[in-house]
Design brief:
By secondary structure, the chain is of the alpha+beta class. The chain has 1 helix and 3 strands. The protein has one helix at 9-59, and strands at residues 78-83, 91-96, 110-114.
Length: 125
């Protein structure tokens, strides 16, 4: 009598079920890490702009222009703006785009920093 090698339908269904369970556990963790990574990119852009603002202040005054400090108006996940600019103060903001996945980054959708490195919200930095 010949024995046929191979998998039964039940064995294949069990493997597919296990893969589905592992995927359903891994996907939320992956999403969380992606939110943190994108937030990290926004923070890096804010810090670079802050360093440029410091250089500009040494030469004269802070700038209210995004292009002068090396920021684009928006990326795929964040909109940037500079506000409250005076001779001695400024604030830079990165706000998650409402239609982007980054808008699900609860409590960390708006990141700000100023001339004194006051970064809000502190838990997101």
């Amino acid at each position: 009598m010949k024995i046929k090698a191979g998998f039964t339908l039940i064995e294949l269904l069990v493997v597919i079920a296990i893969i589905g369970i592992l995927g359903s556990i891994a996907y939320p963790s992956f999403q969380s890490h992606m939110l943190k990574a994108r937030r990290g990119d926004a923070k890096a852009e804010l810090i670079k702009a802050q360093m440029k603002q410091t250089s500009l202040h040494i030469l004269g005054n802070y700038s209210s222009s995004l292009t002068t400090v090396g920021l684009s108006a928006s990326t795929d996940y964040y909109d940037f703006r500079i506000y409250s600019v005076s001779a001695n103060t400024y604030s830079i903001e990165a706000k998650a785009i409402s239609t982007a996945m980054q808008n699900n980054d609860t409590g960390c959708t708006t990141l700000t920093t100023d001339q004194d490195s006051n970064q809000t919200p502190p838990d997101c930095w």
